[in-house]
Amino acid sequence: MSKLAPRLGVLVLLLPACTDDSSALTAATTAVLTTVGATQTTTSTTTGDPTTGEPTTAVTTDEPTTDVGTTTTSSTTDVSTDTTDGTTAAAESCKDGLQNGDETDIDCGGAACPACPDGDACVLDDDCAGHSCIDGSCGPVPATCDDELQNGDETDLDCGGPDCPACGESQACAVDLDCATQTCIDGICQAPTCSDDLTNGDETDVDCGGPECDPCGAALDCLIATDCQSGVCLDGQCAIPLCNDGAKNGDETDLDCGGKSCSPCADGLACKLDADCLKKDCEAGICVGPTCNDGVKNGGETGIDCGGPDCGPCMAGVGLVINEVDYDQPGSDNAEFIEILNTSGAPIDLGNHAVVLVNGATNTTYATINLAGSINPGQYLVLANANFAVPAPALKVTISNGIIQNGGSDPDGIALIDKTAKKLVDALSYDGPITAVNIAGIGVVSLVEGMALPASVIDDAAGAGSLVRLPNGKDSNNAASDWKFTKNITPAAANLP
User: Fold this and answer.
1) Are 322 and 427 in contact (CB under 8 A)?
2) 98 within a domain of the structure (yes/no)
3) Which regions in the chain score pLDDT beneath 70?
4) Fewer Cβ atoms within 10 Å of its own Cβ: the N or the C terminal residue of the chain?
C-alpha cells in the first residue's frame, strides 16, 4: 500500500466527531489527489450514522501508479495528459475508438472530429464527408436537375448523366448521350458537323441525312425520303432508285418517268428535253402534245407547224419570211431586232437578198441592209446591234442601234427583197398600212399582205414584247391572221404566244 492511505486515515480521524459547520465538513470530505503522469480519484461520501445520527465520511481511493509528486484539490477529474489549449486532447479523442464528446459516430462528426463517411450517424450536413445528412445518416446527395449544383451522376451543372437533360455545347460529358448534340469529344460536348465521321445531330447515318447534311446513299439509314439520294426510304434504309418505286428519284424528270433510265413522260408532266416526253415535245419544262405553233415538226405535221390533220396547209415554196420584229422597247432601243426564217426544205443563197426599211410618213426607204452567205432549212437569221447575243446555229447581221423606226403616229415597214429576181419576197407594215412605196430596183409595192394588222396589234413601248408570226413561220399572205403580239421574245428560236 502507498503512503497515501495512512495519511488519509489520519485526516479522517482529526475531523471533529460532531459539528454543525457544513462548510468545514464539505472541505474536509472533498480532498482529491492528483499525481503527474497518472490518474487517481479520491471519492468522499458523507452519510448519517445509524446509531447516533451524526454524519460520517467514507473515503475510497484508487491506488496511484507512481508516488505522489504534486497534490491538487478539486472535484472528480479525468485527465489524459497535460495540455495548454486542449487541441491535443481533442485530436486524441477522435482516435480513441469511442463515440464521445460531441461526436455523432465513433471518432467522427461534431465540431472537432473529421466528417463521417456515408452510412455513419449524423446530425447536420457538415457531420458528413458528402455534406448530406439524411434521416440521421450520412448518404449521397439526391441528384436534382435544377438545384444549381453538379451532383449525382451529372456530368456538368444540372445536366448530363442518366437522369438530367443533355448538356449544351462546351459543357462536360462522359458519353455522347450526355450531350444535346450527341457528340462528346475529349470530355466536352461539341457541335455536330457533317464531316466528323459520327452519326450525330439530326443525321440519320454517318455524316448524312437530316435537314443539315447531304442525303444518304443506298442501304444507309433514313427516316424520311429526303434523307436519301434516291428519294426512297424503305424500312429505315435508303433504297436504290427504280422506275416503279413511286418516287421521283435518280435522273427522272417526273414520277417514275423521263431521264435516261425510265420511260418518257406523258403530256403535262415535267421534262428537261424532248426525249423525256412521250410525244417528244418539252416546252418550258412541261411535256405537251404537238401544237401548230411550237416551232417543231411533230405529231402529224408534214412541215414545221403545218400540214397533217390538225394544222393548216403548208405554203409550198414559201422560202424566206420575216418571222419576228422587235421595233420598240421601254426606254432606249438597244435590243431591237428583225428575225428571218428559212421555211423551205432547201438552203437559200442570201447574197442576192436585202432588207429594206420604209418610212411610212413619206413612203420612202431610209435604209437598205444587204445580206450574204447561205441559210439552211429551219435556220434563223437575226439582224441586231453588235452587243446583241445570238446563239448558234443562228446567223447574225449587225445593224446600228435604233435604226428600226418605231412607227407611232405614222406607219413604218420592212421589206425583204430578191435583188436578182427583182421581186418582193416578204413584207410587214406596222402601226398602220403602207400600201405603196417605191423600192429601187423593185418598183412600187404594197407592204400589206392580205388584210392589214389591226390597230391593237403593235409592239407597245409600255412593255417588253415583239410582233411574231403564229404559228411560227406561218405565211398565209394575210397579215391580220399571221401576225400577233407576244411578251415572249424569242430571237433565233421558234415563236411563242
Assistant:
1) yes
2) no
3) 1-91, 141-142, 293-296, 304, 312-317
4) N
| Residue 228: per-residue pLDDT | 92
The answer to whether residues 488 and 464 touch, using CB atoms and an 8 Å cutoff, is no
pLDDT of residue 4: 36
Q: What stretch of H or E contains 337?
A: strand 337-342
CB-CB contact of 327 with 404 (8 Å): yes
Residue 23 lies in a domain: yes
What are residue 176's phi and psi, to 5 degrees?
-55, -35
Classify the phi-psi angles of 445: left when phi > 0, otherwise alpha if psi is within -120 to 50, otherwise beta. beta
Domain-located, residue 181:
no
Q: What is the CATH number of the domain that holds 377?
A: 2.60.40.1260
Q: C-alpha cell of 177?
A: 448521350
Half-sphere exposure of 90 (CA within 13 A, CB side): 13
pLDDT of amino acid 12: 35
DSSP of 237-286, one letter per residue?
A: EEPPP-TTSSS--TT-SBTTBSTTTSPPBPTTSB-SSGGGBTTS-EETTE
Provide the 8-state DSSP code for 134. Answer: E
- Look at residues 227, 272, 223 and name the one whose alpha carbon lies nearest to residue 251: 272
CA distance readout (Å), 158 to 171, 172, 183, 404, 440: 11, 11, 18, 80, 98
Q: How far apart are CA 325 and CA 453, in angstroms?
A: 14
The CA distance from 204 to 221, in Å, is 6
Is residue 477 classed as helix, strand or coil in its secondary structure? Answer: coil
Integer CA distances (angstroms), 312 to 281, 293, 300, 306, 474, in order: 19, 11, 11, 5, 9
Percentages (nearest 5) of helix, strand, coil residues in the chain: 10, 25, 65
Cis peptide before 393 (omega within 30 of 0): yes
In this predicted structure, what is the pLDDT of residue 115? 94
Check residue 103 and give its pLDDT. Answer: 95
Is the preceding omega at residue 313 within 30 degrees of 0, hence cis? Answer: no
Q: Does residue 260 lie in a domain region? A: no
- Report the number of distinct structural domains present in the chain: 2
Quote the pLDDT of residue 313: 64
Kindly state the cell numbers that stand for 487: 411578251
**DSSP letter string, 162-175:** TTSPPB-TTSB-SS
Q: Rounded to 5 degrees, what are φ and ψ at 451? A: -95, 140
User: Would you call 278 exposed, middle or buried from its count of C-beta atoms within 10 A (0-12, 13-18, 19+)?
Assistant: middle
One-letter amino acid for residue 350 of the chain:
L
**Structure pTM?**
0.43
CA distances to 242, 331, 340, 476 from 458, rounded to whole Å, are 51, 16, 19, 19
Q: Could you give the CA distance from residue 72 to residue 93 in angstroms, rounded to a whole number?
A: 24
**Residue 33 lies in domain:** 4-61
51: exposed, middle or buried (Cβ count in 10 Å: 0-12, 13-18, 19+): exposed
Mapped onto helix, strand or coil, the DSSP state of residue 292 is coil
